[in-house]
């Protein structure tokens, strides 16, 4: 009820005085307006849902915010609310995201961010803009419990001999780690260790794909079993994790199984999959519709059938699966037309494996690349 909410302001007023906080004029004025609002509603201590719309905001989230944290109405606008909003904008929080941060974690309005948290983030080499990005991703990093866990997480990474630059990069990229218990992190790190990912290798993995630390252990084990089923041993799986950690954060159904289905459909025998994965594991995180299919269709358009592609495992797709990572318009088509124009027989690796300077020196001299026909 609104009257109860206003009375709650009186309670906070008493608390504020006991904490030697200054009660400024703008907050008292706002409180007076709320009292007047209650009187004008004439709800006889039984205000109805929606009355907060009279404060000038009809958004549902605003209503829930005030109902959950009525004491926010007592915060001085000029000396507290506006400076906090200005500070958030100054550290790189987009204006459109300030609202989300305040709604997700209202207590931020009562914090002295500059003195409290900035000293913490300097430990991981973060700057103001880093703090802004971290707050957008995970506003709760300012809560006392997260700040307390901050030290424990850093100590844990030190115990695991993870390079500080790697742990810092992981936290800045994925601050959700700070909300995870050390015990949970330990379980995932143990799973990594079972396939030989420790120390510097562990640092590389979490710096590249920090969200892996928050996966359920059984989900990680499922991916390991998936690759074992394709014929990879633990050493090969370890190298795959070290080279492309994103694979182990991918969905089994939506990503990994879909890539496997694609490779099967284009005629790649299962016996050749270990070779494909060892040479280019990133294939399993490429987008099928936007990356893999267009490049496969291009091979077919220039005269190679699905059967041809499937029968050339050593010469082409299996030998050089990195083909699927190159741009059709900027690299594949121009080089194809250069080689075709010179009647040169080539494999995908010969066509794409050289950098621009090496390719030009071997096939063009000092000439410019041919423009593919439209």
From TrEMBL:
<dbReference type="GO" id="GO:0003676">
    <property type="term" value="F:nucleic acid binding"/>
</dbReference>
<dbReference type="GO" id="GO:0006353">
    <property type="term" value="P:DNA-templated transcription termination"/>
</dbReference>
<protein>
    <submittedName>
        <fullName>Transcription termination factor MTEF1, chloroplastic</fullName>
    </submittedName>
</protein>
<dbReference type="InterPro" id="IPR038538">
    <property type="entry name" value="MTERF_sf"/>
</dbReference>
<comment type="similarity">
    <text>Belongs to the mTERF family.</text>
</comment>
<keyword id="KW-0804">Transcription</keyword>
<dbReference type="Pfam" id="PF02536">
    <property type="entry name" value="mTERF"/>
</dbReference>
<keyword id="KW-0809">Transit peptide</keyword>
<keyword id="KW-0806">Transcription termination</keyword>
<keyword id="KW-0805">Transcription regulation</keyword>
<dbReference type="InterPro" id="IPR003690">
    <property type="entry name" value="MTERF"/>
</dbReference>
């Amino acid at each position: 009820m609104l009257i109860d909410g206003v009375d709650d302001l009186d309670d906070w007023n008493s608390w504020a005085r006991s904490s030697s906080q200054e009660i400024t004029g703008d907050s008292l004025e706002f409180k007076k307006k709320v009292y007047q609002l209650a009187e004008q509603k004439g709800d006889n201590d039984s205000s109805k849902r929606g009355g907060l719309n009279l404060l000038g905001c009809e958004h549902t989230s605003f209503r829930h915010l005030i109902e959950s944290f009525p004491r926010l109405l007592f915060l001085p606008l000029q000396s507290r609310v506006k400076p906090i909003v200005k500070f958030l904008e100054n550290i790189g929080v987009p204006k459109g995201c300030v609202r989300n941060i305040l709604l997700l974690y209202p207590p931020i309005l009562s914090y002295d961010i500059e003195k409290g948290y900035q000293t913490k983030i300097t430990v991981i080499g973060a700057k103001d803009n880093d703090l802004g990005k971290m707050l957008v991703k995970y506003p709760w990093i300012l809560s006392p419990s997260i700040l307390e866990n901050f030290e424990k997480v850093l100590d844990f990474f030190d115990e695991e001999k993870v390079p500080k630059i790697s742990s810092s990069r992981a936290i800045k990229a994925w601050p959700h780690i700070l909300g995870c218990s050390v015990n949970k992190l330990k379980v995932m790190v143990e799973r990594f260790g079972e396939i030989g990912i420790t120390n510097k290798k562990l640092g590389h993995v979490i710096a590249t794909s920090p969200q892996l630390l928050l996966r359920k252990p059984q989900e990680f084990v499922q991916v390991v079993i998936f690759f074992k089923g394709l014929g990879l041993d633990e050493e090969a799986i370890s190298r795959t994790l070290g080279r492309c950690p994103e694979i182990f954060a991918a969905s089994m159904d939506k990503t990994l199984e879909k890539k496997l289905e694609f490779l099967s459909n284009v005629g790649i025998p299962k016996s050749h999959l270990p070779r494909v994965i060892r040479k280019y594991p990133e294939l399993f995180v490429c987008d099928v519709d936007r990356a893999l299919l267009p490049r496969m269709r291009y091979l077919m358009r220039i005269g190679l059938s699905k059967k041809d592609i499937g029968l050339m495992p050593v010469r082409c797709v299996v030998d050089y699966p990195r083909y699927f990572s190159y741009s059709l318009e900027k690299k594949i088509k121009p080089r194809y037309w250069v080689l075709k124009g010179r009647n040169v027989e080539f494999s995908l690796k010969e066509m794409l494996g050289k950098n621009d300077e090496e390719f030009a020196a071997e096939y063009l001299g000092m000439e410019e690349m041919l423009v593919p026909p439209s």
